[in-house]
Amino acid sequence: MLRGETLLPAPFLDISGRIASGGERGLLGLVFHPQFGSNGRFFVNYTDRSGDTHISEFRAAAPSDDVADATSERELMFVRQPFANHNGGGLAFGNDGYLYIALGDGGSGGDPQGNAQNLGTRLGKMLRIDVNAAQPFALPPDNPFEGRGGALPEIWAYGLRNPWRFSFDRSTGDLYIGDVGQRALEEIDVGLAARRGGENYGWNTMEGTRCFSPSTGCNMSGLTQPVTEYGRSEGFSVTGGIVYRGCRMPGYAGHYFYADYGSGIIRSFRLDDGRASEARDWTAALSGPGRTIGNPSSFGVDGDGEIYIVDYDGEVYRLDPIG
Question: Buried b / exposed e across 142-179, counting CB within 10 Å, b at 16+?
């Protein structure tokens, strides 16, 4: 934890004894309640020693404390994972105040259990819950699958393979998702706030804009296709990012920044009528320890709206203006 610019010696939360590590498992997501300053509540997404997913709430004894109470865990959700990979792991509060949870398709390769297209499982989904109205949580009444037979009412959107990092545009409320591809394409999906959820992002019928199962002639009707994608010559594991709403780069307000874990590329685009425009490469525009980022694994944003990128080896970079 940083206090100002000082790294404190003790971790804010240590639950390492409960967590599986290695590969795609671990402490995969953390988000603070919008009223953390007054209630001390925050939420984590982690895989336990058996590899299964827990969505849990913890509390700081006081919001100003530098160390949270590791004994305060209250489980909101448990999801059994059939394989070790594709756990997703992101958590974020939307502009509507609800908690969104990203889960992968359960793993292996090609979604052998058909989870992403199955509305009866949480795997391969974006979930949306209300953590304020009831315990362990309540269901927002306008969730798109509420009341549909055979569908879990906490589902907000489906058809995801391994959504590795998602975020909301703090200005528009649009939802941006980086979804890792199988063997050909990495994609960025966008759920426009005006659509009110219910999107099917296509996996495993499609990988990006291409048919996957079947490999040709797939039925694309009703599927929400990505706003942009890229192939294996450019990278192999997308890391979803953040829409810029800071002050240091005023000409890029509304531009979405994302990365690739494998190749280290950092790119941006602006959403224009549902399509990506003004694409730009930012790989060299980083301030940090003086070298190019190796494996960008996550993004963050400070109180001023400036964007930070986390390297897998623990370094943190700030995105700075070019030129």
Answer: ebbbeeeeebbbbbbbbbbbbbbbbbbbeeeebbbbbb
What are the backbone dihedrals phi and psi of residue 194, each rounded to the nearest 5 degrees, phi first? -65, -20
Could you tell me the residue ranges of all domains in the chain? 2-232, 239-323
What is the pTM for the complete model shown?
0.96
In 124-254 the beta strands, taken as DSSP E runs, fall at 125-129, 155-158, 163-168, 175-179, 185-191, 206-207, 210-211, 228-231, 238-243
Element (H, E) at 39: helix 36-39
**Residue 47 in tokens:** 């895989």
Count the helices and strands in the chain (H runs, E runs): 1, 24
CATH superfamily of domain region 2-232: TolB, C-terminal domain (2.120.10.30)
Is 32's pLDDT higher than 80? Answer: yes
What pLDDT, in 10s, does the model give residues 139-169?
999 999 999 999 999 999 999 999 999 999 9
pLDDT one-digit tens code per residue, 183-201:
999 999 999 999 999 999 9
What order do you get walking across the sheet with 53-59 strand by strand?
27-32, 41-47, 53-59, 69-79
* Average pLDDT estimate for 179-183: 97
Determine the 3-state secondary structure of 137 from DSSP: coil
Q: How far is CA 109 from CA 37, 219, 269, in A?
A: 42, 21, 30
pLDDT score at 291: 60
**Structure-block tokens of residue 319:** 């995105």
